[in-house]
Each structure stands twice: as C-alpha cells, then as structure tokens.
C-alpha cells in the first residue's frame, strides 16, 4: 500500500484522469438513449473515468447514486434530475464533501444556487412556445378547421414537463381558436403515450383535432392509438411534438407527424469540457444553453440525412 501511495503521490495531479460520477434519469426515450451515448463517448474520447448510474426514472435511485459518488470521492458529480424538487439535502452533502455538481439536461429548484456550479441544457419554455407558434400559424392558414388540443405531458414534476406546458400555454393564451380540452402525463414513454391517447380518444373521439406531446416518444405511441381508432394522424389529428429524434422524422416522412421542435441531447462534449474546467479551478458559466431548431414535415426529407440522433 505504501508503494502504491508513493506511486500515486509521484504522479503529477493533472495526470490523474478526471473521475466524473454521472446519474442518468433512465432509458425512457430515444432522446435519453442519444443523451447517454453522447456522455459516454465524450468521456471516452477525453480519457475521463466515468462512473455511470441509470436511475430507472426514480429520484431515490439518483439520490443513492449521488451518495455513492460522494463516498467514492469522485472529482465531479453530474446528473440529469428526473424531477425539479427534493435535491437540497443530497446536494448539501456533496457541497460539504467539496465535490462540485454539474446539472445536465434538466434543472432543479433549490434554496441555494451555490449547490451546483453549472446547468447545461435547453430552454424548455421556449420549446413549448415554438410548438404553439407553429400551431398558431397553422390555424391562420386553416380558418375552417377546429383546434381542440389534447396534451400529453412529460414526467410529472420534471422541468421539461412543467416548462413545455407553460411555454405552450403562454403562446395560445387569448386565442379563441386554440383550446386544450384534455391534458395528462404520458411520462415521456411510447407505451404510456399510447395508453393515455387511447383514453383521450375514448372520451373525446372526433372532438380531438390536435395532439401536443411533450416528446416524440409519446407522440409515436399516440400515433399508433390514433390509427387503431381508424383516424389519420397528421391529418384528422395534427401531431405536434418535441425532441427531433429519428422516430419523429420517420413519422413525418410517412405524413403522420406534422412538426417536431428540436431538443438537443448531444450534451456530452459540453459536460466533459465544463467538468475539466471546474476540476482545474477555472470559472464556468452558471447556465450553458444549446442551439436547436424547429423541423416541420416539409423539411423532413432534406434534413433527415443530417440528423445525428
Ligand atoms: C429533455 C429531456 C426529456 C426529453 C424526453 O431535455 O429531459 O426527457 O424531451 C426525455 O424525451 O425522456
């Protein structure tokens, strides 16, 4: 042990690989799969020692993972918080252990903003606004059609679900033509999205003109339900969703989905770079946003070959 200690002491501090403990939400969607792949490949390319934990969408598993990273004395803790609240205690433990914390993808609501050094992720309120703006413009061009909207919300209490709902509602507020008639969580998964859409169709049937889904996976599940009900997704019921994953482009090419608002999952390089700066004691921005666009069906064929996730 003494020899090993001597060896470690002999290695200049900057030569030891950076160790990041990362707690991921789960594997609930195509978006998440791409996000995980980006983080793992960026860590590999940078020679970072990545300890990766999948929480199966349960907050208690993320708290456990963070506690284990503290016990292992990792250099940096990073995580995508499944929900916004309930993090103060475990983040205070990380602070007491002098381990910096970086948030990726989703935000937290904490009493003390010094509990994390940086949040790298999208502006979900703007994503909700972009989805609604597309619908407002569609309505102007189709004055004779109805716009009764059913909404499939993301995971209850998650930043993307809360913010995408708020952004969308902000833009349609005061517009008598656009009305949300049902809204329920589909937990960001295809299976739940299909199940909830089946319930919407049972209770509202032909009264539904639009589906607004907080992610493409729920939209893809809902599309199956719409077809099984004998209706045409993308025509009888407009389908508006968020993420921009491959499945959404394929659905647009089949005329079953009308627009997807991009939410960039490729955060790995920015996470690794930020962690390296933090480890070197360099300042980092508190908020790092990502560039993203809006892809209506008419550009799907041209854009599809460029998609990276
Ligand atoms: C958004 C991310 C959301 C995606 C979903 O940054 O947190 O979680 O929109 C994913 O597909 O499940």
Automatic annotation (TrEMBL):
Q: Where is the signal peptide?
A: 1-15
Domain of life, per the record? Bacteria
Q: Which InterPro entries match?
A: Peripla_BP_I, SBP_2_dom, TAT_signal
UniProt organism field:
Massilia niabensis
User: Which Pfam families does the record associate with it?
Assistant: Peripla_BP_4
Ranges of residues in domain Periplasmic binding protein? 20-281
Query: Signal: present as a keyword of the record?
Result: yes
Q: Tell me yes or no: is Plastid among this UniProt entry's keywords.
A: no
- Return the SUPFAM superfamilies for the record: Periplasmic binding protein-like I
Q: What is this protein called?
A: ABC transporter substrate-binding protein
Q: Where in the cell is it found?
A: Cell envelope
Tell me which UniProt keywords the record has, alphabetically. Signal
* Protein family per UniProt: Belongs to the bacterial solute-binding protein 2 family.
């Amino acid at each position: 042990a003494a020899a090993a200690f001597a060896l470690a002491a002999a290695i200049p501090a900057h030569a030891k690989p950076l160790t990041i403990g990362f707690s991921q939400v789960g594997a609930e969607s195509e978006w998440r799969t791409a996000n995980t792949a980006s983080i793992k490949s960026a860590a590999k390319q940078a020679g970072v020692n990545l300890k990766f934990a999948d929480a199966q969408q349960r907050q208690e598993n993320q708290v456990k993972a963070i506690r284990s990273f503290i016990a292992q004395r990792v250099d940096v803790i990073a995580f995508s918080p499944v929900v916004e609240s309930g993090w103060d205690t475990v983040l205070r433990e990380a602070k007491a252990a002098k381990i910096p914390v970086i948030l990726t993808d989703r935000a937290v609501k904490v009493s003390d903003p010094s509990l994390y050094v940086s949040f790298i992720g999208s502006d979900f309120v703007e994503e909700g606004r972009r989805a609604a703006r597309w619908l407002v413009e569609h309505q102007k061009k189709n004055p004779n059609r109805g716009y009764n909207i059913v909404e499939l919300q993301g995971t209850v209490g998650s930043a993307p679900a809360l913010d995408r709902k708020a952004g969308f509602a902000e833009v349609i507020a005061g517009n008598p033509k656009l009305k949300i008639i049902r809204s329920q969580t589909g937990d960001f998964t295809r299976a739940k999205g299909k199940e909830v859409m089946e319930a919407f169709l049972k209770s509202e049937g032909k009264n539904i003109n639009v589906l607004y889904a907080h992610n493409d996976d729920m939209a893809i599940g809902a599309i199956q339900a719409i077809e099984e009900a004998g209706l045409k997704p993308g025509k009888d019921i407009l389908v508006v969703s968020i993420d921009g994953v491959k499945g959404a482009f394929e659905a647009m090419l089949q005329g079953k989905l009308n627009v997807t608002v991009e939410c960039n999952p490729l955060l790995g390089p920015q996470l690794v770079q930020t962690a390296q700066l933090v480890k070197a004691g360099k300042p980092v921005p508190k908020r790092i946003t990502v560039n993203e666009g809006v892809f209506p069906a008419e550009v799907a064929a041209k854009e599809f070959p460029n998609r990276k996730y």
